[in-house]
What we know:
The chain has one helix and ten strands, in the order H-E-E-E-E-E-E-E-E-E-E. By secondary structure, the protein is mainly beta.
Amino acid sequence: MLKKIIVGLSAVLFLASAAAVSAQDVLMNSAETINKGNVKLGFFPTVLFGKNGEDTLFGAAGRVGIGLTTRFDIEVKGAIFQGLKYLGADAELWFLHGPNFNGSAALGVHMTNRQGGDDSRGVDTALLLSTRPVERLELYGGFKFAYDWVNGSDRTLAMMHLVPGLEFRISRSLDFLAEFGFALNGNARHYASLGLALYFFR
């Protein structure tokens, strides 16, 4: 019961802050899903690099999630930048479980609000692979794809990123993460993100 209350309050606070201000999605996790019954709360300062004359944007991304089984989790995700806000949710399946090599796939939905118009709704997917070279360090690489429909028009947007990153276990309940998103097409922007993920009931 306490777990459900914490998840609910965290999600409400996170969504309220996103709705009040202004983001592009980040991965910020290895291929391992959240342990069954555990709750994850992540906060990640993020830089969205300028492109085609657009300004570089500084903001924050975040995730709130729970492990539903030993290999499946769901997360609410969002990000806030000046003139841009992003809100969504996804489900992740840990399909490859090796002694030192893991793979997972995620599928989600989202909406993006941009100052001045071009709000959109869309779907997104990600493929993640990760390995652990030393006990506390996990290196991961991901491919991220999002497809959006612009509200009130027949325009669509596709964004693709190649994402290398790392996850370092600070303690039993706290991880440090950092990643760089390389834009692979014209609609996407490079980004850099780092921050902390806190786990409850681990």
